[in-house]
Amino acid sequence: MPTRHLPMIISVVLLAAFSLTSAQAASRCVAKAASGTQPASISCSTQTTSINSGGEAPRKVVFQVPMGTPPANGWPVALLFHGSLVKVTGFSYNTGAPFGGYYQGELIRALLDSGYAVIAPNALTAAEAWQTNEPAWANNYAQSNDQLFFNNLFAAMNSGVFGKLDARRWYAVGISSGGYNTSRMAVSFPGRFKALAIQSASFATCVGARCPLPQELPAGHPATLFLHGMADRVVPWSSMQPYHDRLLLQGVDTALYTEAAGTHQWFAASPSRILDWFQRHP
């Protein structure tokens, strides 16, 4: 190799190294590989606030915004709904977390590093499940505490409590009970969300294998990605399929990612699939 090219090559290598270091430094998250008896982990810094929940105690909301200056219209934002029994106290996960929780951490990192704010509210009930498909509220949701809470949460999002957010680019994603609650965003809050991602769940009012659908799904239903394992025994794959197929029939943009051996959990592929889906619906 001619020596006259070496300075240029060295400069390019140094620039690439600097860019990588800058990108890593700009992340809100830190990942650690497994070491000895310690599992691999990922942790993202968080902020917290409390949102009025009517006569109940205020609900804790965990959130974070990307590093840097928000775009002119504000950050696009992803609401992340937890599953039953997995309350959100922070954004720290390891490979021993139940329901593939480590990949929820990877999803949060992917969203933050790609310029999405992430807001993770907590459910009200002792079982930490959302009210969307509870018998008392499934078909009477307007009277539920969750509806009141979400109206207050959305008002807080619009008023700047979570920083500068883009009101035209709201997304929602959730697993299990949080997946049903993601569907609820289409049913009870029409016109607010650009796209949804439902992991291991189905339509807003369904429970487990029981999933009767209304005659017509909501007009203007957001584009929806389903991620579901064929080996899921908590929410069978067959309970999701009619929802997906009905969206296709009604001309709604929808997609399905399935793993044959997948159980009731986040998949390693979930973060990239969900991020790509959101990015395809700006």
Number of strands: 11
Averaged pLDDT, please? Answer: 91
Shape-level CATH architecture: 3-Layer(aba) Sandwich
Question: What is the CATH level 1 assignment?
Answer: Alpha Beta
The helix-and-strand class reads: alpha/beta
Number of helices: 6
Low-confidence stretches: 1-24
CATH topology: Rossmann fold
Instruction: Estimate the global geometry from the Cα principal axes.
Output: globular
Q: How would you write the strand order of the largest sheet?
A: 3-4-7-5-8-9-10-11
The CATH homologous superfamily is named: Alpha/Beta hydrolase fold, catalytic domain
Topology order in helix (H) and strand (E) letters: HEEEEEEHEHEHEEHEH
Total of domains: 1
| Helix percentage range | 25-40%
Radius of gyration: 20 Å
* Residue fraction in strands: 15-25%
- How far is it from the N-terminal to the C-terminal residue, by CA? 46 Å
Main beta-sheet annotation: 8 strands, mixed
